[in-house]
């Protein structure tokens, strides 16, 4: 089974890319949904968040109530230290949920799975996928889209954009880049071209049914990423 990571930035057009991928019958693990799942009151990560941030991040500020996402956002987006704490709680929980779903797809004999992860790079998940796809759009377009879509002020929109790694830096990690700089039809065609490029070979898909070979393939992916190194760190060393 081939596992591919898809990332972008807020308002970069990644959701449109995912919609196109789904029309091809390729399963997509939506990590935004998983991030919402792991902060529900029934999940262990919920208690960890409340222990650190207090009940003020909850609706009605009461234990057992859902997370107040707006209030939580006003705490973590402007504050890098608080954001790191939140990520240290949420990211491991999301990774566990991803692995559960990947195992189910492998049991079913699925050839290709896309993991839709906004924080693919920040959460270090890029190290365990065979390919990284980045959806890119220019910063000014990204800012205009989020202001229009979410009704945010420019400062609030910038706070959300700046909470993520700049898109231009994410491109350094990409095996494939989908440029969202034109209309929706152009974006759809670009997505289809990339999907055709990453289509797994049926022979390797067949071999992946055998656990020893699956372990070998997974080890190869991790080692390849490890020896290839972090593009940003390598670039800074070469300066």
UniProtKB/TrEMBL annotation:
The keyword Transmembrane helix applies. GO terms for biological process: coenzyme A biosynthetic process. Pfam families: CoaE. InterPro entries: Depp_CoAkinase, P-loop_NTPase. Keywords: ATP-binding, Membrane, Nucleotide-binding, Transmembrane, Transmembrane helix. One of its GO terms (cellular component) is extrinsic component of mitochondrial outer membrane. GO terms for molecular function: ATP binding; dephospho-CoA kinase activity. SUPFAM superfamilies: P-loop containing nucleoside triphosphate hydrolases. Gene3D superfamilies: P-loop containing nucleotide triphosphate hydrolases (3.40.50.300). The keyword Cell wall biogenesis/degradation does not apply. This is CoaE-domain-containing protein. It comes from Lobosporangium transversale. The lineage of its organism: Eukaryota, Fungi, Fungi incertae sedis, Mucoromycota, Mortierellomycotina.
């Amino acid at each position: 089974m081939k596992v591919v990571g898809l990332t972008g930035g807020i308002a970069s057009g990644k959701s449109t890319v995912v919609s196109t991928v789904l029309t091809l019958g390729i399963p997509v693990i939506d990590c935004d949904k998983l991030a919402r799942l792991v902060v529900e009151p029934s999940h262990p990560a919920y208690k960890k968040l409340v222990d650190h941030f207090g009940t003020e991040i909850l609706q009605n500020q009461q234990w057992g109530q859902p997370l107040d996402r707006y209030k939580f956002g006003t705490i973590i987006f402007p504050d890098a230290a608080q954001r790191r704490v939140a990520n240290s709680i949420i990211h491991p929980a999301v990774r566990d949920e991803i692995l559960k779903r990947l195992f189910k797809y492998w049991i079913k004999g699925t050839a290709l799975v896309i993991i839709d992860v906004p924080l693919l790079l920040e959460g270090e998940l890029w190290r365990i996928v065979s390919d990284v796809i980045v959806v890119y759009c220019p910063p000014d377009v990204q800012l205009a889209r989020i202001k229009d879509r979410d009704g945010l002020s420019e400062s609030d929109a910038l706070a959300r954009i700046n909470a993520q790694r700049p898109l231009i830096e994410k491109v350094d990690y990409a095996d494939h880049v989908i440029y969202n700089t034109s209309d929706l039809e152009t974006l759809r065609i670009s997505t289809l071209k990339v999907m055709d490029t990453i289509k797994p070979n049926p022979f390797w898909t067949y071999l992946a049914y055998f656990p020893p070979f699956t372990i070998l393939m997974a080890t190869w992916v991790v080692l390849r990423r490890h020896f290839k190194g972090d593009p940003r760190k390598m670039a800074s060393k070469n300066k």
